[in-house]
Structure formats: structure tokens, C-alpha cells
Amino acid sequence: MYETDRLRLLAELTNECCELNHGPGTRLENFPAVDYIVMPFGYQETEIAEVSVREMVIPVCRECAAALAGEEWTLLYCFECCSCQWVARAFSKNRYRHHILWLRGCPHCAEQFGGLYFNDPITMLGLPAFLSQQRGSMMAA
Length: 141
Hints:
Elements: H1 3-12, E1 35-44, E2 50-60, H2 62-69, E3 73-78, E4 84-88, E5 100-103, E6 116-119
Parallel strand pairs: 3-5
Antiparallel strand pairs: 1-2, 3-4, 5-6
């Protein structure tokens, strides 16, 4: 991400609300965003060069950021329709090890499941997950 884009997003943060699911009957306005999750989607060109085709930028509130950093919750996020669901690891039939599972298609938007991608905020492509912790670049890669 270019430094100018990063600075613009951080400047607009005061007008953003968390876009993650807080349960039924909740309003976005009740959850002001404090940071953004940034997930670059792309491919590896060589062993050294990675190409980021697009970056998913999602505003998150303090509670969601803390949940993503903890070990109690896993976020299922569909990057096709931007719907999401939290899974409490202690009550799940499955053993979730990752903090975020990225879905390509979900029951809300697709008839066919397109794939599953996973990562942890700390190890996301060698970058911090939150925009406030990332350093921007001034030139295209």
C-alpha cells in the first residue's frame, strides 16, 4: 500500500464504523472504528516477488481488534459479499487454529464454494494485520 493511501485511510478513520458482525439488532454507529484490517490478495511471481492484486481494507472497532488478537474467537469473512461470522473456538465442533478464515463465496452470495484462505494477523504475509502498524511505500512494487 502506498504511504499516501495509508495516511488517507488513517485520516478518515474518525468517520468509520466497524464493519464486522456484532450480532442481531446492532447498529454500526455504536461501534466506531479504531483501525483497519488489511488483507492483500494476490499471487507469488517468484520465490522473492509477490504481487498484490487488491487489498481488502476493513474498519474494525476496539473489541473486534482485541478478539482478532486473542485466542477465543475465529472470524469467518467472505471477501465476495463482505459478510462475516464469529466462531467461539471453545464451543465449536471444529478445531480452529487461525484468527481469520477468508471465504471465497459463502451461503449468502454463492451457490458454489470458491475456496478457503487463512492467516493470523501477526504473520499475514510478513506484515502486521492492522493498518496503523504498517509502513507504506512511496513507489509501486
